[in-house]
Design goal:
Layout: E1 4-10, H1 16-23, E2 29-36, E3 39-44, E4 47-53, H2 59-69, E5 73-78, H3 89-107, E6 114-116, H4 125-137, E7 142-146, E8 148-149, E9 152-153, H5 157-168, E10 172-176, H6 191-210, H7 213-216, E11 223-225, H8 236-245, H9 247-250, E12 265-267, H10 273-283, E13 288-289, H11 305-308, H12 314-328, H13 332-338
Parallel strand pairs: 1-5, 5-6, 7-10, 10-11, 11-12, 12-13
Antiparallel strand pairs: 2-3, 3-4, 8-9
Keywords: Decarboxylase, Lyase, Metal-binding, Zinc
Enzyme class: lyase
Domain Amidohydrolase-related: 4-331
């Protein structure tokens, strides 16, 4: 059975000097790798952001991890703090090209096992489209984007233009929450990650649906949301009820939210058998892809265990573990080579 993990992060070895040169700021993201054997620290300028393991930047360690975990192929995306959406356009283009170059080099360690997604300067639509086209010609399998730009959600006209370009370029899109809610209510117990991430993704999916954006986007667009779609699958009944009862909710959407679950996919990073069963029931087994959030501490430690030990049928299990990902990201060659 082919196993493909579609939600996994890389933080390239970008040092502080390179970050400062590219971003023009002393507060840009960079990686400190001198903390001890196999350990490092994600940095934001002089501030420590998160301790990390060598797997995050060393492809040999990554492949050894995949061997240990029984994963054939991993789809790689940058760490969201590397998006660079706050940079002016020229710097944003240079920054994304640099990150993309690092990602290609990382994946080149084993092209049959590591499938990279690019990133783009989403703050400028023309530049984002050009960067995507360039990246797809270099061998990327799609693009990894944040779920919003300040107060613009993905239903904003400029972002819909970019998503339409992704469909035209046959580029799969992985949407990841970022720039999470802050303040005293979110500062304790990692609540920005535990509650904010789920809420951000839910908000973005509903914004696309209720704005009528899916009526305007090409049906060929391959769109996927991380972390099981956040709160959306578990509160879909509430959204449908609101659409039927309030004209304010259905003003721009000709169909209730449940009508649009065939327009996007989600990963399986929900960590609970009951939640996974509900996710598959809501989205359909063909729209749930194995995702681990590897190698971060909040990710699935034994990639695929939840799916393997679930009450899904054998056919559903095979689809979620790898079959769906092969189609979604165009991985036929990678999976054929990886499972030899």
């Amino acid at each position: 059975m082919t196993v493909v993990d579609v939600h996994a992060h890389v933080f390239p070895e970008i040092g502080r000097a390179e970050s400062r040169r590219l971003t023009g700021s002393d507060d840009g993201p960079w990686l400190r790798t001198t903390d001890g054997p196999g350990t490092g620290m994600m940095m934001a300028g002089a501030a420590e952001y998160r301790p990390v393991q060598r797997t995050l930047w060393d492809p040999a360690e990554r492949v050894a991890d995949l061997d240990r975990l029984g994963v054939d192929v991993q789809v790689l995306s940058s760490t969201p703090m590397l998006f660079g959406y706050d940079l002016e356009t020229a710097r944003g283009v240079d920054w994304c090209r640099t990150v993309n170059s690092h990602l290609l080099s990382y994946a080149a360690h084993d092209r049959d096992r590591l499938a990279p997604l690019c990133q783009v300067p989403l703050q400028d639509t023309e530049a984002a489209c050009a960067t995507l086209s360039e990246a797809m010609s270099q061998g990327f399998h799609g693009v990894h984007i944040g779920n919003h730009l300040v107060d613009r959600d993905l239903d904003h006209g400029a972002l819909l233009e970019f998503l339409t370009h992704c469909a035209d370029q046959d580029a799969a899109v992985l949407v990841h929450p970022w720039d999470l809610p802050s303040g005293p209510r979110f500062s304790r117990y990692m609540l920005a990650w535990l509650a904010g991430m789920a809420g951000e993704t839910h908000l973005t999916i509903l914004s696309l649906i209720l704005s009528g954006a899916f009526e305007r986007l090409p049906a060929s667009l391959r769109l996927m949301f991380a972390h099981g779609g956040g709160s959306f699958p578990y509160l879909l009944g509430r959204a449908d009820n609101a659409w039927h009862r309030r004209d304010l909710v259905r003003a721009d959407s000709p169909h209730p939210p449940s009508h649009y679950t065939d327009r996007f996919s989600v990963d399986s990073a929900v960590f609970d058998p009951g939640a996974l069963r509900l996710l598959v029931d809501v989205m359909g087994a063909e729209r749930v892809l194995l995702g681990s959030d590897h190698p971060f501490p909040l990710g699935e430690e034994e990639i695929g265990r939840l799916v393997r030990e679930s009450a899904l049928t054998p056919e559903e299990r095979a689809a979620v573990l790898g079959g769906n990902a092969v189609r979604f990201f165009g991985l036929a060659r990678q999976t054929k080579e990886a499972v030899r």
